[in-house]
Write a structure and sequence with these properties.
Helix content is 22%, strand content 32%. It has 223 residues and is of the alpha+beta class. The strands form 3 sheets. An 8-stranded antiparallel sheet has the order 1-3-4-5-11-10-9-8, with helices on both faces. Strands 2-12 form a two-stranded antiparallel sheet. Helix 2 runs antiparallel to helix 3. It is globular.
């Protein structure tokens, strides 16, 4: 996906300037955002949006639970428990905003790729020497891309989870860093072509999750 990331820092107060800047990107999206449903009662926070070269918002993520951080002295049991939900606008092959190129269609593999790479950024081995981190991340990111491009491969299983109350099939895999899943919704009142949903996390079981449309994304900035 030809996108650039625009950071949206977690806010500590709904009215803070940083909070307003973060939520503005989400508000520009022409598709609905998804998060964990009401069964999840923990903290919710904004992460980042991804935009095309012309500034069109194409995807983004919302966080749930404890914001992940890299702590060299943290054991597996002490790592944060979190789940991030990635929403990707469903779109066919189309011309770029400047009319000079073509943008690839988004698919469930797009959501799987974004979720897989997001997990790596949140969970890279803290004991790894910083001089080696880029090489490790490049290698693991390439692996995540290959896995996302082969959703019918042996690395994935099928997991049914509710989306707006409707059982929906997801591609699911686990790794030493956490879990990743990806699926698609059907048409909705606010998205004629639906959206693709990815998610990743650790410390929280994916088997008990449910997803739903976020009625007001600003509520995530007020946590």
């Amino acid at each position: 996906m030809e996108t650039t990331s625009r950071a949206g820092a977690r806010s500590t107060a709904g009215g803070a300037p940083g909070s307003r800047r973060a939520v503005e990107g989400y508000l520009r999206a022409t598709f609905p955002w998804y998060g964990l449903d009401d069964a999840f009662t923990g903290p919710r926070w904004l992460m980042q949006v991804g935009t095309a070269a012309d500034g069109t918002v194409q995807h983004g993520a919302t966080g749930h639970g404890e914001e992940p951080s890299i702590r060299p002295d943290a054991s597996g049991a002490e790592r944060e428990r979190f789940a991030a939900v990635v929403t990707v606008a469903a779109s066919p092959v189309r011309r770029s905003g400047d009319g000079k190129g073509v943008l690839d269609a988004t698919t469930v593999s797009s959501a799987a790729w974004l979720a897989g790479s997001g997990l790596l950024v949140s969970t890279w081995p803290a004991q790894l020497d910083h001089s080696l981190r880029d090489d490790w991340l490049d290698q693991q990111t390439e692996t995540a891309f290959e896995l996302a491009d082969d959703l019918n491969g042996s690395a994935w299983s099928v997991l049914s989870l509710p989306v707006d109350g409707v059982p929906t099939p997801f591609h699911y895999r686990e790794s030493e860093f956490g879990w990743v899943l990806a699926g698609s919704t059907g048409p909705t009142a606010s998205a004629e072509d639906g959206v693709h949903i990815g998610a990743y996390g650790r410390g929280m079981s994916a088997y008990g999750l449910g997803f739903s449309v976020i009625e007001d994304i600003r509520s995530y900035a007020a946590e």
